[in-house]
Amino acid sequence: MTSAHSPFKPWEDGLKKWISEKKISSKDLSSIVGLNTLTRIWLEGAALTAIDDWQSFAECWHDKLLQKCLEVTTNRLKNGECPGSPENWRFKPVPEISIQNKSLEKCLEKAIAQLACDKRPGWVDWANQVPVASGIVDRYTDKKRAIDLVKRIASEKFQFIELKTGSDNPFYAAHELLGYFAFYLFARNSSKQLPRNRSPQPELLSAKRIELIVLAPVSFYNFPKWDERRARIQMAYDKLANKFSKGAFEVKFEFQTLDEMFPPGAQQNELKKQASTNFAEEWSGIWK
User: Above 70 in pLDDT, residue 256?
Assistant: First the structure.
């Protein structure tokens, strides 16, 4: 439990009040996972200075969030409601990008997708913009909620990657990943109990291991005592995610740098070359 003097106490009290007062219905799954504005404000404040108590934060916020999502899942399945669009959890590269889009993050993601589409050696096991929530609430809500990148690292083993090049912060990125994980729990439960409009089932939903990864430049993690904080957060979310997977699959949470995912060498050079078609001098700034 969070101590009475912890900076997490007001957040825990506020969350308990929100859950108790809000009349959660089967159509509130998206808002439960989201709360993005409130969470962003908080994570940019207290969490940056009180990260030593990260275990309490995981317990008082994401544990309750995931638990509520499971309750919503159960209710929806009992009511025979649709588990979402057949496109959810597809595994394929989507390389198309507008020529006007100059986002470093988006162009890096699309460069990986293009290399995968071209079936370049070392890139064929990548996908991007993997939908997770389309059709869960209704035909229009959350159609664009998607995991930035997914990599197949072995048979029935995948990495779900939240890619960042500068926006937000590591703590908010972790929150986003936990949101995707909540939808993943929903999808796995749904796939076992309700028929889907396609066959075979998405391979992602039968994974034996899922790695939740925040991937960003070294500069993205420029916080005091980052190594210690990184270890605490990873430990807290490893424990939390595996609690909810209930032994059906293994979960690992990790922060990685771009240079850790793509070490200097041929693959990194190939990615830089593919992505630099949309950028000038600022492109090199996200690497060491």
Answer: yes
Is 267 in a helix, a strand, or coil? helix
Q: What's the pLDDT at 26?
A: 41
CB 56 within 8 A of CB 46: no
Where residue 81 falls (left for φ over 0; alpha for ψ -120 to 50; beta otherwise) is beta
CA angle 149, 151, 152 (to 5 degrees): 155
Question: Tokens 């439990």 label which residue?
Answer: 1
Q: What is the DSSP letter of 137?
A: S
Give me the numbers of helices (H) and strands (E) for the chain, helices first please.
Answer: 11, 5
Residue listed under structure tokens 């990184």: 230
Sheet holding 146-154, edge to edge: 126-131, 146-154, 157-163, 209-216, 250-257
Question: What's the rounded Cα separation, in Å, for the pair 177 and 51?
Answer: 18
Structure tokens at 7: 């900076």
* Whether the predicted model's global pTM rises above the 0.90 cut: no
Cα separation values, 282 from 179, 276, 285, Å: 31, 10, 6
Q: Counting beta carbons within 10 angstroms of the beta carbon of residue 7, is it exposed (0 to 12), middle (13 to 18) or buried (19 or more)?
A: middle
